[in-house]
Design brief:
The structure holds two protein chains of two kinds. By secondary structure, chain A is an all-alpha fold. Chain A folds into two domains: about 35 residues; about 220 residues, MetI-like (MetI-like fold, Orthogonal Bundle), CATH 1.10.3720. Chain A has ten helices and no strands. The two termini of chain A are about 30 Å apart. Chain B is an alpha/beta fold. Chain B has a single domain, classed as Rossmann fold. A six-stranded mixed β-sheet of chain B has the order 6-7-8-3-9-10, with helices on both faces. The longest helix of chain B has 16 residues. The model of chain B has no long low-confidence stretch (mean pLDDT about 95).
């Protein structure tokens, strides 16, 4: 095929001119975006600062003196949230997958299992997280059949139970979105139903719903803050204690900023993964 | 003035240079058929003309307008070109008549009633008069592809690009689609098509263009290309596709 062609094609004057035009167009849009962002931020700040109650609000919510003092307590509490998130995340990944697989089992033999999983998913998706926390955190220990465990552990379990139900539904949607011809191809090779699920359906199904799963994870990241209602001293509880001591709301704002800080990397990663999957699955082109 | 002028067009995907300086001109009513092995650059050439792929160098002129100019409105250019794809790409959530009239109504601002009337007449003319209210998945592949062609021509595009439109069809259904293309030629459409149907290329093409490794190796009237190919690559390609 290489019939004397130069290895690198030198762009023509016309093409260089077009590239220059595109470069300028890019600069123009960057400048416009920057200008409109600044203008918008300026207006927003001016509006808030000029409200009649701004001075009082500033005192109550943005007192950096109090913020600085409460910061170490809240940070220590946040460590508990991060641990809770870690274990809940692992639990949800396992239990959610099991639920999804059970719900997608076919055949009359599995009816009781399937029904149990369905009821479970319906219940835990329907009941508000806060109520699940109370029921699990106060109800189960009262049965006196488990060794005493801290509120944080029960809280983590409760969050995990709720999110397993959500994640199971997302995974099931992904598995059902895998084209039936893939199952047929796998079964035709002699793979059993279980092996077809494990080797062919789940890997493809998970890939389809990765953005949705990451969205659930980000959501869980902040919901682990709810374990504070059981008395666990996490970031929110630590902030609450400082609020009670100082009669000032700034510790809540600090806690909020910390929660944003831990969720930001993941939200950006979600965007990146979604964009990459898009570019890989489409045939490309300018559309 | 030529309907389409492709001047020294280059296109790479990463390190893979797919088009290496392609020149091609179509005058009004020309039917030009691109042949060549898979990966020779036929589809990429069609996609660059429809501005789906941005060229790395060269120039594309549509009725004299430089459509490779980055200042050009791509939607307006695409509205002037009809495209039919290998996989039909009909919209599965719309009835046949809505598929066919979508661009007329939403891009060209045609009144829904007259668009519908013209769409129905054209479908009728191509033997699809009883399919107006069907959804695409109720139709055979050949019927779907004919609907896709009607969708592409309803807005009277200056140029029609057909990208291997029979490759996904049952051999039994290829004929009905090709007959339709033959009808378009008789009505004077300007068509650039990539195909593997050599017999059809011979009977319909004004010019056959053989692509190889991102270049046009040979072009000319079908008798010349098929009966007296000059390049060894052309001869080898034709030997492969005509004898199995």
């Amino acid at each position: 095929m290489s019939d004397g062609a130069p290895p690198v094609h030198e762009p023509s004057a016309l093409e260089l001119q077009r590239r220059e035009y595109r470069r300028q167009a890019t600069w123009r849009s960057v400048l416009i975006a920057a200008a409109s962002t600044v203008a918008f931020a300026l207006v927003a700040v001016l509006v808030v600062v000029n409200t009649p109650g701004w001075d009082a609000v500033k005192q109550t919510f943005f007192n950096w003196e109090i913020g600085r003092e409460s910061f170490p307590d809240i940070l220590e509490g946040l460590w508990l949230n991060i641990r809770a998130l870690f274990f809940a995340g692992i639990g949800v990944a396992i239990f959610g997958t099991v639920l999804a697989v059970i719900r997608s089992l076919r055949g009359p033999v599995f009816f009781p299992l399937r029904m149990l999983a369905t009821v479970y998913v319906d219940l835990f998706r329907g009941v508000p997280v806060l109520i699940v926390l109370y029921l699990v955190g106060f109800g189960i220990p009262a049965l006196d059949i488990f060794p005493p465990m801290s509120a944080a552990v029960w809280g983590t379990i409760a969050i995990g139970l709720c999110y397993s139900a959500y994640v199971a539904e997302v995974l099931r949607a992904g598995m059902e979105a895998v084209h039936p011809s893939q199952r047929i191809a796998a079964r035709s090779l002699g793979l059993s139903h279980a092996k077809t699920l494990r080797m062919v359906v789940i890997p493809q199904g998970v890939r389809k719903v990765i953005p949705a799963l990451m969205n659930d994870f980000v959501s869980m990241q902040k919901d682990v803050g709810l374990i504070s209602v059981l008395g666990a001293v996490d970031a929110i509880r630590a902030a609450q204690i400082d609020v009670a001591l100082t009669y000032n709301m700034t510790p809540y704002v600090i806690a909020a900023l910390l929660f944003i800080a831990i969720s930001l990397p993941l939200t950006r990663l979600t965007d990146y993964v979604a964009a990459r999957m898009n570019s890989r699955e489409q045939i490309g082109g300018v559309v | 003035m030529s309907v389409l002028e492709v001047r020294d067009v280059w296109k790479s995907f990463g390190d893979n240079t797919v088009l290496k300086g392609v020149d091609l001109t179509l005058d009004e009513h020309d039917v030009v058929v691109l042949i060549g092995a898979s990966g020779s650059g036929k589809s990429t050439l069609l996609r660059t003309i429809n501005l789906i792929e941005r060229i790395d160098d060269g120039q594309l002129l549509l009725s004299g307008d430089d459509i490779s100019d980055p200042a050009v409105d791509m939607d307006k250019v695409r509205a002037r070109i009809g495209v039919v794809f290998q996989q039909f790409n009909l919209f599965p959530h719309m009835r046949v008549i809505d598929n066919v009239t979508l661009a007329a109504r939403k891009v060209h601002g045609e009144n829904a009633a007259t668009a519908r009337e013209r769409g129905a007449a054209l479908l009728e003319q191509f033997g699809l008069g009883d399919k107006l209210s069907d959804y695409p998945d109720r139709l055979s592949g050949g019927q779907q592809q004919r609907v896709a062609i009607v969708r592409a021509i309803l807005t009277n595009p200056e140029l029609l690009l057909l990208d291997e439109i029979t490759s996904a069809l049952d051999p039994m259904l290829v004929g009905e689609v090709l007959d339709l293309v033959r009808g378009l030629k008789e009505q004077g459409s300007t068509i650039l098509m990539a195909t593997h149907e050599m017999a059809f290329a011979r009977s319909v093409a004004d010019r056959v263009v053989f692509m190889h490794g991102g270049r046009i190796l040979e072009a000319g009237p079908p008798e010349q290309i098929f009966d007296a190919p000059q390049q060894p690559e052309t001869r080898e390609f034709l030997a492969r596709v005509t004898h199995h």
